[in-house]
Amino acid sequence: MPSTPIRVVGRSLVEGAAQGALLFADVGLSFWGGVDPASGEVIDRHHPLSSQRLAGRVLAIPSGRGSCTGSSVLMELISNGHAPAALVLAETDEILTLGVLVAQLIFQRSLPVVQIGSEAFERLRGQGFVRIEGNCLTLTGRRPDDRWDQADVPLPPPMPSTVNLTEQDRALLDGNHGKAAQVAMQIVLRMAEIQGTTQLLDVTQAHIDGCIYTGPASLRFAEQLVQWGAKVRVPTTLNSISVDQRRWRELGIDPALGEPASALGDAYMAMGAQLSFTCAPYLLETAPKAGEQIVWAESNAVVYANSVLGARTQKYPDFLDICIALCGRAPLTGCHLDDQRKARLIVDVPGLGTVDDSFYPLLGYHIGGLTGRRIPLIRGLEHAAPTLDDLKAFGAAFATTSAAPLFHIAGVTPEALDPVDVVEADCPIPMETVDAAGLLASWRELNSARDNRVDVISLGNPHFSLSEFANLAALCVGRSKHPDVVLAITCGRAVLEQARQAGHLGAIEAFGATLVTDTCWCMLGEPVIPPAATTLMTNSGKYAHYAPGLVGRGVHFASLAACVDAACNATATGQPPLWLQPATRQGNPFHV
Questions:
Q1: What pLDDT, on the 0 to 100 scale, is given for residue 425?
Q2: How many domains does the chain have?
Q3: pTM recorded for the entire structure
Q4: Range of 209's domain?
Protein backbone atom coordinates (compact mmCIF):
# COMPACT_ATOMS: atom_id res chain seq x y z
CA MET A 1 0.00 0.00 0.00
CA PRO A 2 1.20 3.56 -0.66
CA SER A 3 2.67 5.30 2.34
CA THR A 4 0.79 8.10 4.08
CA PRO A 5 1.83 11.52 2.77
CA ILE A 6 3.94 13.63 5.12
CA ARG A 7 2.99 17.28 5.48
CA VAL A 8 5.46 19.98 6.44
CA VAL A 9 4.64 23.63 7.06
CA GLY A 10 7.42 26.17 6.61
CA ARG A 11 7.97 29.81 5.78
CA SER A 12 7.35 30.96 2.25
CA LEU A 13 10.20 33.19 1.07
CA VAL A 14 8.76 33.43 -2.44
CA GLU A 15 5.12 32.44 -2.83
CA GLY A 16 4.12 29.87 -5.40
CA ALA A 17 2.92 26.38 -6.14
CA ALA A 18 4.87 23.57 -7.78
CA GLN A 19 5.56 19.86 -7.66
CA GLY A 20 8.29 17.52 -8.81
CA ALA A 21 10.65 14.69 -8.02
CA LEU A 22 12.78 15.50 -4.98
CA LEU A 23 16.50 16.17 -5.42
CA PHE A 24 17.91 16.15 -1.88
CA ALA A 25 21.37 16.92 -0.49
CA ASP A 26 22.51 17.70 3.04
CA VAL A 27 25.39 19.86 1.75
CA GLY A 28 24.96 23.48 0.68
CA LEU A 29 25.42 24.28 -3.01
CA SER A 30 26.97 27.34 -4.64
CA PHE A 31 25.02 27.93 -7.84
CA TRP A 32 27.94 29.93 -9.31
CA GLY A 33 30.66 27.43 -10.13
CA GLY A 34 28.40 24.67 -8.94
CA VAL A 35 25.58 24.75 -11.52
CA ASP A 36 25.88 25.29 -15.25
CA PRO A 37 23.68 28.34 -16.00
CA ALA A 38 22.96 27.10 -19.53
CA SER A 39 21.81 23.56 -18.70
CA GLY A 40 21.06 23.32 -14.99
CA GLU A 41 23.60 20.53 -14.47
CA VAL A 42 25.38 20.43 -11.11
CA ILE A 43 29.04 20.84 -12.08
CA ASP A 44 30.58 21.07 -8.60
CA ARG A 45 32.59 17.86 -8.78
CA HIS A 46 32.97 17.80 -4.98
CA HIS A 47 29.21 17.90 -4.36
CA PRO A 48 27.00 14.82 -3.78
CA LEU A 49 24.63 16.05 -6.54
CA SER A 50 27.40 16.31 -9.13
CA SER A 51 26.09 15.63 -12.69
CA GLN A 52 22.43 15.81 -11.62
CA ARG A 53 20.09 18.09 -13.61
CA LEU A 54 17.91 20.53 -11.69
CA ALA A 55 15.27 21.29 -14.31
CA GLY A 56 11.74 20.45 -13.18
CA ARG A 57 12.81 18.90 -9.87
CA VAL A 58 12.29 20.21 -6.35
CA LEU A 59 15.76 20.99 -5.03
CA ALA A 60 16.20 20.59 -1.28
CA ILE A 61 19.50 21.83 0.21
CA PRO A 62 20.32 23.27 3.64
CA SER A 63 21.22 26.61 1.99
CA GLY A 64 23.45 28.01 -0.68
CA ARG A 65 27.12 28.61 -0.05
CA GLY A 66 30.11 30.14 -1.77
CA SER A 67 29.60 32.73 -4.47
CA CYS A 68 27.33 35.78 -4.39
CA THR A 69 26.74 35.17 -8.13
CA GLY A 70 24.40 32.28 -7.28
CA SER A 71 21.51 34.72 -7.60
CA SER A 72 22.50 35.50 -11.19
CA VAL A 73 22.85 31.84 -12.12
CA LEU A 74 19.43 31.02 -10.67
CA MET A 75 17.84 33.96 -12.48
CA GLU A 76 19.46 32.71 -15.70
CA LEU A 77 18.03 29.22 -15.14
CA ILE A 78 14.56 30.62 -14.50
CA SER A 79 14.83 32.67 -17.68
CA ASN A 80 15.99 29.80 -19.91
CA GLY A 81 13.71 27.09 -18.53
CA HIS A 82 16.35 24.96 -16.78
CA ALA A 83 15.55 25.98 -13.19
CA PRO A 84 14.30 23.62 -10.51
CA ALA A 85 10.55 23.55 -10.03
CA ALA A 86 11.01 24.88 -6.49
CA LEU A 87 13.59 25.38 -3.76
CA VAL A 88 13.25 23.94 -0.26
CA LEU A 89 15.81 25.23 2.23
CA ALA A 90 16.62 24.37 5.81
CA GLU A 91 17.76 27.95 6.42
CA THR A 92 16.93 31.30 4.86
CA ASP A 93 19.23 31.98 1.93
CA GLU A 94 19.24 35.55 0.67
CA ILE A 95 21.37 34.84 -2.43
CA LEU A 96 19.09 32.24 -3.98
CA THR A 97 15.90 33.99 -2.87
CA LEU A 98 17.06 37.24 -4.44
CA GLY A 99 17.65 35.53 -7.79
CA VAL A 100 14.01 34.41 -7.82
CA LEU A 101 12.71 37.83 -6.76
CA VAL A 102 14.59 39.60 -9.55
CA ALA A 103 13.32 37.11 -12.13
CA GLN A 104 9.82 37.74 -10.80
CA LEU A 105 10.02 41.55 -10.89
CA ILE A 106 12.02 41.99 -14.08
CA PHE A 107 11.03 38.99 -16.22
CA GLN A 108 7.67 37.98 -14.66
CA ARG A 109 8.89 34.42 -14.08
CA SER A 110 9.23 32.78 -10.69
CA LEU A 111 9.37 29.62 -8.61
CA PRO A 112 8.41 28.95 -4.98
CA VAL A 113 11.06 29.11 -2.26
CA VAL A 114 10.23 27.63 1.15
CA GLN A 115 12.36 27.53 4.30
CA ILE A 116 11.42 24.75 6.71
CA GLY A 117 14.10 24.56 9.42
CA SER A 118 16.72 21.90 10.08
CA GLU A 119 14.50 19.40 11.88
CA ALA A 120 11.81 19.35 9.21
CA PHE A 121 14.47 19.32 6.50
CA GLU A 122 15.66 15.93 7.75
CA ARG A 123 12.17 14.53 7.10
CA LEU A 124 12.75 15.04 3.36
CA ARG A 125 15.57 12.50 3.32
CA GLY A 126 14.48 9.42 1.38
CA GLN A 127 11.28 10.98 0.02
CA GLY A 128 10.60 10.75 -3.70
CA PHE A 129 8.15 13.52 -4.57
CA VAL A 130 7.19 16.94 -3.24
CA ARG A 131 4.17 19.15 -3.83
CA ILE A 132 4.34 22.77 -2.68
CA GLU A 133 1.39 25.08 -2.13
CA GLY A 134 2.45 28.36 -0.54
CA ASN A 135 4.21 27.44 2.70
CA CYS A 136 2.93 23.85 2.78
CA LEU A 137 4.83 20.79 1.52
CA THR A 138 3.34 17.37 0.89
CA LEU A 139 5.93 14.57 0.72
CA THR A 140 5.19 11.26 -0.95
CA GLY A 141 7.19 8.29 -2.16
CA ARG A 142 6.07 8.86 -5.76
CA ARG A 143 4.04 11.24 -7.88
CA PRO A 144 0.39 11.27 -6.73
CA ASP A 145 -2.14 9.92 -9.19
CA ASP A 146 -4.36 13.00 -9.38
CA ARG A 147 -4.99 15.95 -11.66
CA TRP A 148 -3.45 18.66 -9.50
CA ASP A 149 -2.48 21.78 -11.41
CA GLN A 150 -0.36 24.48 -9.83
CA ALA A 151 -2.28 27.07 -11.83
CA ASP A 152 -5.40 26.21 -9.80
CA VAL A 153 -3.74 27.08 -6.48
CA PRO A 154 -4.70 30.60 -5.37
CA LEU A 155 -1.87 32.68 -3.96
CA PRO A 156 -2.36 35.19 -1.16
CA PRO A 157 -2.13 38.87 -2.11
CA PRO A 158 1.20 40.58 -1.34
CA MET A 159 1.48 41.96 2.18
CA PRO A 160 2.11 45.67 2.68
CA SER A 161 5.68 46.55 3.67
CA THR A 162 6.42 46.76 7.38
CA VAL A 163 9.75 48.56 6.90
CA ASN A 164 10.05 52.06 8.36
CA LEU A 165 10.69 54.55 5.56
CA THR A 166 12.18 58.03 5.48
CA GLU A 167 10.80 60.71 3.17
CA GLN A 168 13.63 59.96 0.76
CA ASP A 169 12.81 56.25 0.85
CA ARG A 170 9.18 57.04 0.02
CA ALA A 171 10.22 59.30 -2.82
CA LEU A 172 12.30 56.49 -4.29
CA LEU A 173 9.46 54.01 -3.82
CA ASP A 174 6.95 56.37 -5.43
CA GLY A 175 9.10 56.70 -8.54
CA ASN A 176 10.11 60.32 -8.00
CA HIS A 177 13.72 59.40 -8.88
CA GLY A 178 12.90 57.20 -11.85
CA LYS A 179 11.77 53.68 -12.60
CA ALA A 180 15.14 52.04 -11.89
CA ALA A 181 15.38 53.48 -8.37
CA GLN A 182 11.75 52.58 -7.75
CA VAL A 183 12.20 48.91 -8.68
CA ALA A 184 15.48 48.84 -6.76
CA MET A 185 13.75 50.09 -3.61
CA GLN A 186 10.98 47.51 -4.05
CA ILE A 187 13.61 44.76 -4.12
CA VAL A 188 15.48 46.20 -1.11
CA LEU A 189 12.25 46.32 0.91
CA ARG A 190 11.30 42.78 -0.04
CA MET A 191 14.69 41.52 1.11
CA ALA A 192 14.43 43.50 4.35
CA GLU A 193 11.12 41.77 5.07
CA ILE A 194 12.59 38.33 4.31
CA GLN A 195 15.49 39.11 6.66
CA GLY A 196 13.08 40.19 9.39
CA THR A 197 14.13 43.81 9.81
CA THR A 198 12.01 46.94 9.82
CA GLN A 199 14.95 49.34 9.46
CA LEU A 200 17.21 50.48 6.64
CA LEU A 201 20.61 52.14 6.97
CA ASP A 202 22.74 54.41 4.81
CA VAL A 203 25.76 52.85 3.12
CA THR A 204 28.91 54.70 2.06
CA GLN A 205 30.02 52.60 -0.91
CA ALA A 206 29.17 49.57 -3.02
CA HIS A 207 31.05 46.83 -4.85
CA ILE A 208 29.05 45.16 -7.62
CA ASP A 209 29.39 41.46 -8.41
CA GLY A 210 26.47 41.35 -10.85
CA CYS A 211 28.78 42.46 -13.69
CA ILE A 212 29.80 38.80 -14.18
CA TYR A 213 28.14 37.51 -17.34
CA THR A 214 26.15 34.35 -16.62
CA GLY A 215 24.06 34.49 -19.79
CA PRO A 216 21.61 36.70 -21.68
CA ALA A 217 19.39 37.39 -18.67
CA SER A 218 22.22 39.02 -16.69
CA LEU A 219 22.79 41.47 -19.54
CA ARG A 220 19.07 42.08 -20.04
CA PHE A 221 18.74 42.95 -16.35
CA ALA A 222 21.53 45.55 -16.45
CA GLU A 223 20.43 47.06 -19.75
CA GLN A 224 16.87 47.32 -18.46
CA LEU A 225 18.12 49.35 -15.49
CA VAL A 226 20.08 51.61 -17.86
CA GLN A 227 16.97 52.13 -20.01
CA TRP A 228 15.09 53.06 -16.86
CA GLY A 229 17.68 55.76 -16.11
CA ALA A 230 19.62 54.04 -13.32
CA LYS A 231 22.34 56.06 -11.55
CA VAL A 232 24.19 54.95 -8.43
CA ARG A 233 23.83 57.13 -5.33
CA VAL A 234 27.07 56.04 -3.60
CA PRO A 235 30.65 55.49 -4.86
CA THR A 236 30.57 52.11 -6.60
CA THR A 237 33.31 49.77 -7.83
CA LEU A 238 32.95 46.81 -10.16
CA ASN A 239 34.04 43.22 -9.67
CA SER A 240 35.97 41.23 -12.24
CA ILE A 241 33.99 40.84 -15.42
CA SER A 242 34.02 37.76 -17.62
CA VAL A 243 36.67 38.96 -20.11
CA ASP A 244 39.73 41.21 -20.29
CA GLN A 245 37.81 44.13 -21.77
CA ARG A 246 40.81 45.60 -23.59
CA ARG A 247 42.34 42.35 -24.88
CA TRP A 248 39.66 39.68 -25.23
CA ARG A 249 39.99 39.59 -29.01
CA GLU A 250 43.79 39.37 -28.74
CA LEU A 251 43.38 36.47 -26.29
CA GLY A 252 41.19 34.61 -28.77
CA ILE A 253 37.93 34.83 -26.83
CA ASP A 254 34.84 33.93 -28.86
CA PRO A 255 32.82 37.09 -29.67
CA ALA A 256 29.70 35.21 -28.52
CA LEU A 257 31.11 35.66 -25.00
CA GLY A 258 33.39 38.67 -25.44
CA GLU A 259 30.80 41.06 -26.78
CA PRO A 260 27.98 40.56 -24.24
CA ALA A 261 30.44 40.22 -21.34
CA SER A 262 32.10 43.51 -22.28
CA ALA A 263 28.70 45.14 -22.84
CA LEU A 264 27.65 44.08 -19.34
CA GLY A 265 30.62 45.94 -17.85
CA ASP A 266 29.73 48.98 -19.95
CA ALA A 267 26.13 48.87 -18.72
CA TYR A 268 27.19 49.10 -15.09
CA MET A 269 29.59 51.93 -15.88
CA ALA A 270 26.69 53.72 -17.60
CA MET A 271 24.97 53.63 -14.20
CA GLY A 272 27.95 55.52 -12.72
CA ALA A 273 30.11 52.67 -11.41
CA GLN A 274 33.90 53.04 -11.58
CA LEU A 275 36.01 51.03 -14.01
CA SER A 276 37.79 48.90 -11.40
CA PHE A 277 37.13 45.34 -12.63
CA THR A 278 38.70 43.53 -9.69
CA CYS A 279 37.59 40.77 -7.33
CA ALA A 280 39.94 42.26 -4.70
CA PRO A 281 38.50 45.75 -4.10
CA TYR A 282 40.25 45.81 -0.72
CA LEU A 283 43.47 46.41 -2.71
CA LEU A 284 42.11 49.69 -4.11
CA GLU A 285 42.62 53.12 -2.57
CA THR A 286 38.86 53.19 -1.95
CA ALA A 287 38.99 50.27 0.52
CA PRO A 288 36.65 50.93 3.47
CA LYS A 289 37.73 51.67 7.02
CA ALA A 290 36.87 49.74 10.17
CA GLY A 291 33.24 50.22 11.16
CA GLU A 292 32.22 51.63 7.77
CA GLN A 293 28.78 50.46 6.62
CA ILE A 294 29.10 49.24 3.02
CA VAL A 295 27.39 47.00 0.49
CA TRP A 296 29.84 44.58 -1.08
CA ALA A 297 29.19 41.46 -3.11
CA GLU A 298 31.81 38.88 -4.29
CA SER A 299 32.24 36.28 -1.58
CA ASN A 300 35.98 36.69 -0.95
CA ALA A 301 35.67 40.47 -0.84
CA VAL A 302 32.79 40.32 1.66
CA VAL A 303 34.73 38.02 3.97
CA TYR A 304 37.91 40.14 3.73
CA ALA A 305 36.04 43.42 4.34
CA ASN A 306 34.26 42.08 7.43
CA SER A 307 37.08 40.01 8.87
CA VAL A 308 40.34 41.76 7.99
CA LEU A 309 39.27 45.39 7.49
CA GLY A 310 36.54 45.44 10.14
CA ALA A 311 34.08 47.08 7.74
CA ARG A 312 30.44 46.01 7.84
CA THR A 313 28.59 44.31 5.03
CA GLN A 314 26.28 41.41 4.53
CA LYS A 315 27.15 38.79 1.94
CA TYR A 316 25.08 40.56 -0.67
CA PRO A 317 23.69 38.68 -3.65
CA ASP A 318 24.29 39.82 -7.19
CA PHE A 319 21.55 42.30 -8.21
CA LEU A 320 20.77 43.28 -4.63
CA ASP A 321 24.20 44.95 -4.70
CA ILE A 322 23.23 47.31 -7.54
CA CYS A 323 19.74 47.86 -6.10
CA ILE A 324 21.26 49.14 -2.86
CA ALA A 325 23.77 51.24 -4.80
CA LEU A 326 20.85 52.86 -6.65
CA CYS A 327 19.07 53.62 -3.36
CA GLY A 328 22.00 54.17 -1.00
CA ARG A 329 20.00 52.16 1.56
CA ALA A 330 20.37 48.61 2.87
CA PRO A 331 18.52 46.36 5.32
CA LEU A 332 19.79 46.90 8.87
CA THR A 333 20.59 43.33 9.75
CA GLY A 334 23.32 40.70 9.58
CA CYS A 335 26.91 41.86 9.89
CA HIS A 336 25.82 45.49 9.96
CA LEU A 337 24.90 44.85 13.63
CA ASP A 338 27.26 44.21 16.57
CA ASP A 339 25.44 41.17 17.91
CA GLN A 340 25.35 39.42 14.54
CA ARG A 341 29.14 39.65 14.19
CA LYS A 342 29.71 37.40 17.21
CA ALA A 343 31.29 33.98 16.86
CA ARG A 344 28.93 31.00 16.85
CA LEU A 345 31.63 28.34 16.66
CA ILE A 346 35.16 27.96 18.10
CA VAL A 347 37.74 26.19 15.94
CA ASP A 348 41.04 25.22 17.54
CA VAL A 349 44.13 24.82 15.36
CA PRO A 350 46.97 22.90 17.08
CA GLY A 351 50.48 24.33 17.38
CA LEU A 352 52.27 24.98 14.10
CA GLY A 353 55.80 24.45 12.97
CA THR A 354 57.16 25.85 9.71
CA VAL A 355 54.54 26.02 6.97
CA ASP A 356 54.45 27.44 3.47
CA ASP A 357 51.86 29.75 1.93
CA SER A 358 49.60 26.84 0.89
CA PHE A 359 48.70 26.34 4.55
CA TYR A 360 46.31 29.29 4.81
CA PRO A 361 44.09 28.56 1.79
CA LEU A 362 43.99 24.90 2.80
CA LEU A 363 43.05 25.80 6.36
CA GLY A 364 40.40 28.27 5.17
CA TYR A 365 38.89 25.67 2.85
CA HIS A 366 38.83 23.08 5.63
CA ILE A 367 37.39 25.37 8.29
CA GLY A 368 34.78 26.70 5.87
CA GLY A 369 33.50 23.17 5.52
CA LEU A 370 33.12 22.91 9.30
CA THR A 371 31.21 26.14 9.81
CA GLY A 372 28.18 26.12 7.52
CA ARG A 373 26.59 29.53 8.17
CA ARG A 374 28.20 29.96 11.62
CA ILE A 375 30.81 32.67 12.17
CA PRO A 376 33.92 30.99 13.62
CA LEU A 377 36.49 32.16 16.15
CA ILE A 378 39.74 30.44 15.17
CA ARG A 379 42.28 29.89 17.93
CA GLY A 380 45.85 28.73 17.73
CA LEU A 381 47.24 31.21 15.18
CA GLU A 382 47.99 33.98 17.68
CA HIS A 383 51.76 33.74 17.09
CA ALA A 384 51.71 32.61 13.46
CA ALA A 385 51.72 36.20 12.11
CA PRO A 386 49.79 35.58 8.88
CA THR A 387 50.34 38.24 6.23
CA LEU A 388 47.54 40.10 4.46
CA ASP A 389 48.10 37.80 1.49
CA ASP A 390 47.70 34.81 3.79
CA LEU A 391 44.43 36.23 5.09
CA LYS A 392 43.26 36.95 1.54
CA ALA A 393 43.94 33.34 0.51
CA PHE A 394 42.39 31.97 3.72
CA GLY A 395 39.25 34.09 3.30
CA ALA A 396 38.70 33.21 -0.36
CA ALA A 397 38.92 29.48 0.34
CA PHE A 398 36.81 29.84 3.48
CA ALA A 399 34.11 31.68 1.52
CA THR A 400 34.07 28.85 -1.04
CA THR A 401 32.91 26.17 1.39
CA SER A 402 31.17 28.31 4.02
CA ALA A 403 28.07 30.48 3.87
CA ALA A 404 29.34 32.67 6.74
CA PRO A 405 30.21 36.29 5.85
CA LEU A 406 32.90 36.68 8.50
CA PHE A 407 35.62 34.87 10.43
CA HIS A 408 37.59 35.90 13.52
CA ILE A 409 41.17 34.80 14.20
CA ALA A 410 42.12 35.26 17.84
CA GLY A 411 44.92 37.80 18.24
CA VAL A 412 45.02 38.52 14.49
CA THR A 413 41.86 40.03 13.02
CA PRO A 414 40.87 43.45 14.37
CA GLU A 415 37.71 42.54 16.26
CA ALA A 416 39.31 39.46 17.86
CA LEU A 417 42.55 40.96 19.18
CA ASP A 418 40.93 40.12 22.49
CA PRO A 419 38.83 37.01 21.72
CA VAL A 420 36.47 37.81 24.59
CA ASP A 421 35.09 40.64 22.44
CA VAL A 422 33.63 38.30 19.80
CA VAL A 423 31.88 35.74 21.99
CA GLU A 424 28.67 36.15 23.95
CA ALA A 425 29.23 36.10 27.70
CA ASP A 426 27.74 33.06 29.46
CA CYS A 427 26.64 31.58 26.14
CA PRO A 428 27.98 28.07 25.39
CA ILE A 429 29.55 27.81 21.95
CA PRO A 430 30.18 24.54 20.10
CA MET A 431 33.80 23.69 19.36
CA GLU A 432 35.68 21.92 16.57
CA THR A 433 39.35 20.96 16.39
CA VAL A 434 41.39 20.84 13.21
CA ASP A 435 43.37 17.62 12.97
CA ALA A 436 45.90 16.13 10.59
CA ALA A 437 43.47 13.72 9.00
CA GLY A 438 40.99 16.45 8.24
CA LEU A 439 43.57 18.77 6.68
CA LEU A 440 45.00 15.95 4.61
CA ALA A 441 41.52 14.99 3.39
CA SER A 442 40.93 18.59 2.31
CA TRP A 443 44.32 18.67 0.57
CA ARG A 444 43.39 15.53 -1.36
CA GLU A 445 40.01 17.01 -2.25
CA LEU A 446 41.69 20.06 -3.76
CA ASN A 447 44.21 17.92 -5.65
CA SER A 448 42.03 16.35 -8.31
CA ALA A 449 44.75 15.80 -10.95
CA ARG A 450 45.31 12.16 -11.91
CA ASP A 451 48.97 12.43 -12.89
CA ASN A 452 51.95 14.70 -12.28
CA ARG A 453 51.69 16.55 -15.58
CA VAL A 454 51.19 20.36 -15.47
CA ASP A 455 49.92 22.28 -18.52
CA VAL A 456 48.74 25.57 -17.00
CA ILE A 457 49.70 27.53 -13.88
CA SER A 458 46.74 29.60 -12.68
CA LEU A 459 47.66 32.49 -10.36
CA GLY A 460 45.58 35.39 -9.13
CA ASN A 461 42.35 34.05 -7.67
CA PRO A 462 41.57 36.37 -5.95
CA HIS A 463 43.43 38.99 -7.98
CA PHE A 464 47.16 39.27 -7.34
CA SER A 465 48.34 41.90 -4.86
CA LEU A 466 51.46 44.07 -5.19
CA SER A 467 53.26 41.94 -2.60
CA GLU A 468 52.35 38.76 -4.46
CA PHE A 469 53.87 40.26 -7.61
CA ALA A 470 57.03 40.99 -5.62
CA ASN A 471 57.18 37.42 -4.30
CA LEU A 472 56.61 35.96 -7.74
CA ALA A 473 59.25 38.19 -9.32
CA ALA A 474 61.82 37.00 -6.78
CA LEU A 475 60.99 33.37 -7.61
CA CYS A 476 61.29 34.00 -11.38
CA VAL A 477 64.63 35.81 -11.47
CA GLY A 478 67.08 34.00 -13.74
CA ARG A 479 64.60 31.25 -14.66
CA SER A 480 62.35 30.46 -17.61
CA LYS A 481 59.17 28.46 -17.76
CA HIS A 482 58.90 25.26 -19.76
CA PRO A 483 57.79 26.04 -23.34
CA ASP A 484 54.79 23.71 -23.05
CA VAL A 485 53.45 25.36 -19.88
CA VAL A 486 51.18 28.40 -19.75
CA LEU A 487 51.64 30.55 -16.63
CA ALA A 488 48.94 33.23 -16.43
CA ILE A 489 48.23 35.79 -13.71
CA THR A 490 44.96 37.66 -13.28
CA CYS A 491 44.94 41.03 -11.53
CA GLY A 492 43.27 44.41 -11.46
CA ARG A 493 44.48 47.24 -13.64
CA ALA A 494 45.43 49.41 -10.65
CA VAL A 495 47.66 46.74 -9.08
CA LEU A 496 49.20 45.87 -12.44
CA GLU A 497 50.30 49.48 -12.84
CA GLN A 498 51.68 49.52 -9.31
CA ALA A 499 53.66 46.36 -10.05
CA ARG A 500 55.00 47.89 -13.24
CA GLN A 501 56.14 51.03 -11.44
CA ALA A 502 57.73 48.93 -8.69
CA GLY A 503 59.79 47.03 -11.26
CA HIS A 504 58.26 43.61 -10.57
CA LEU A 505 57.05 42.82 -14.07
CA GLY A 506 60.42 42.56 -15.82
CA ALA A 507 61.41 39.24 -14.25
CA ILE A 508 57.87 37.88 -14.51
CA GLU A 509 57.51 38.70 -18.20
CA ALA A 510 61.04 37.41 -18.91
CA PHE A 511 60.01 34.16 -17.23
CA GLY A 512 57.24 33.88 -19.83
CA ALA A 513 54.12 34.73 -17.84
CA THR A 514 50.90 36.03 -19.38
CA LEU A 515 49.20 38.93 -17.60
CA VAL A 516 45.41 39.21 -17.77
CA THR A 517 43.39 42.07 -16.26
CA ASP A 518 39.68 42.75 -15.68
CA THR A 519 38.66 39.09 -15.35
CA CYS A 520 39.58 36.24 -13.03
CA TRP A 521 40.09 32.49 -13.20
CA CYS A 522 36.51 31.67 -12.25
CA MET A 523 35.47 33.22 -15.58
CA LEU A 524 38.38 32.13 -17.79
CA GLY A 525 38.29 29.14 -20.09
CA GLU A 526 39.58 28.26 -23.52
CA PRO A 527 41.68 29.44 -25.28
CA VAL A 528 43.48 31.08 -22.33
CA ILE A 529 43.47 27.52 -21.06
CA PRO A 530 44.67 25.68 -24.19
CA PRO A 531 42.16 23.12 -25.48
CA ALA A 532 44.82 20.39 -25.25
CA ALA A 533 45.60 21.17 -21.61
CA THR A 534 44.43 18.48 -19.20
CA THR A 535 45.90 19.59 -15.87
CA LEU A 536 46.13 22.90 -14.04
CA MET A 537 48.15 23.97 -11.01
CA THR A 538 47.23 26.79 -8.65
CA ASN A 539 47.98 28.21 -5.22
CA SER A 540 44.32 29.21 -4.81
CA GLY A 541 42.12 26.99 -2.67
CA LYS A 542 39.09 28.69 -4.19
CA TYR A 543 40.08 27.93 -7.77
CA ALA A 544 41.27 24.42 -6.96
CA HIS A 545 37.71 23.74 -5.77
CA TYR A 546 35.86 25.32 -8.70
CA ALA A 547 38.14 24.49 -11.66
CA PRO A 548 37.16 20.83 -12.20
CA GLY A 549 33.55 21.86 -12.69
CA LEU A 550 34.14 25.15 -14.50
CA VAL A 551 36.79 24.03 -17.02
CA GLY A 552 36.80 20.24 -16.76
CA ARG A 553 40.47 19.88 -15.81
CA GLY A 554 42.23 18.19 -12.95
CA VAL A 555 44.10 20.43 -10.51
CA HIS A 556 47.29 20.38 -8.48
CA PHE A 557 47.10 22.68 -5.46
CA ALA A 558 50.38 23.87 -3.92
CA SER A 559 52.41 26.87 -2.76
CA LEU A 560 53.49 29.73 -5.02
CA ALA A 561 57.09 28.45 -5.04
CA ALA A 562 55.91 24.97 -6.01
CA CYS A 563 53.87 26.49 -8.84
CA VAL A 564 56.95 28.25 -10.21
CA ASP A 565 58.98 25.05 -9.95
CA ALA A 566 56.27 23.18 -11.84
CA ALA A 567 56.20 25.89 -14.50
CA CYS A 568 59.90 25.22 -15.11
CA ASN A 569 59.68 21.45 -15.53
CA ALA A 570 56.02 20.87 -16.47
CA THR A 571 55.48 18.44 -13.60
CA ALA A 572 54.23 18.55 -10.02
CA THR A 573 55.39 16.30 -7.22
CA GLY A 574 51.87 15.14 -6.45
CA GLN A 575 52.87 14.94 -2.78
CA PRO A 576 51.54 16.91 0.20
CA PRO A 577 53.81 19.72 1.40
CA LEU A 578 56.52 18.75 3.86
CA TRP A 579 54.64 20.20 6.81
CA LEU A 580 51.64 17.96 6.05
CA GLN A 581 53.47 14.78 5.15
CA PRO A 582 53.65 13.45 8.73
CA ALA A 583 49.85 13.24 8.56
CA THR A 584 50.16 10.58 5.87
CA ARG A 585 51.80 8.21 8.34
CA GLN A 586 49.12 6.75 10.55
CA GLY A 587 49.64 7.27 14.23
CA ASN A 588 51.88 10.32 14.01
CA PRO A 589 50.81 13.29 16.13
CA PHE A 590 49.63 16.40 14.34
CA HIS A 591 52.59 18.72 14.04
CA VAL A 592 52.95 21.02 11.06
A1: 81
A2: 4
A3: 0.93
A4: 167-335
